[in-house]
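Run log // design_07
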């Protein structure tokens, strides 16, 4: 059973920073993509950032250089450092893991339980 466990969320002052962590365990294909999505009640879940096994990244436009995704392949862990946070960043942040079995066109996706980030003074 693949599991993703997030940590690091909490209450943050506007303009502050937080680092989220996500540790994956289970039978995980090494050639994968890990990353972060976020969701606000009443809105669709949206991509924040992803990184594949070789270090190729994808960021949402709203990141604007203030968020950085990193990963430690040896630990099966992905991180998200978020700086200059504002109230619009308040959301439930979900860790994401994906790989494909190309010959069968199979996509395997897994999600963490989510960690809440609340930006408020």
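design_07 sequence
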């Amino acid at each position: 059973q693949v599991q993703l466990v997030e940590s690091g969320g909490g209450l943050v002052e506007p303009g502050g920073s937080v680092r989220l962590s996500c540790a994956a365990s289970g039978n995980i294909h090494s050639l994968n993509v890990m990353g972060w999505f976020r969701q606000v009640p009443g809105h669709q879940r949206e991509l924040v950032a992803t990184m594949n096994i070789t270090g190729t990244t994808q960021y949402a436009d709203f990141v604007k250089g203030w968020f950085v995704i990193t990963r430690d392949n040896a630990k099966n862990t992905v991180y998200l450092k978020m700086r200059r946070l504002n109230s619009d960043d308040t959301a439930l942040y979900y860790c994401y893991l994906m790989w494909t079995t190309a010959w069968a066109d199979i996509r395997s996706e897994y999600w963490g339980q989510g960690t809440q980030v609340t930006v408020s003074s």
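The CA atoms of residues 36 and 118 lie 16 Å apart.
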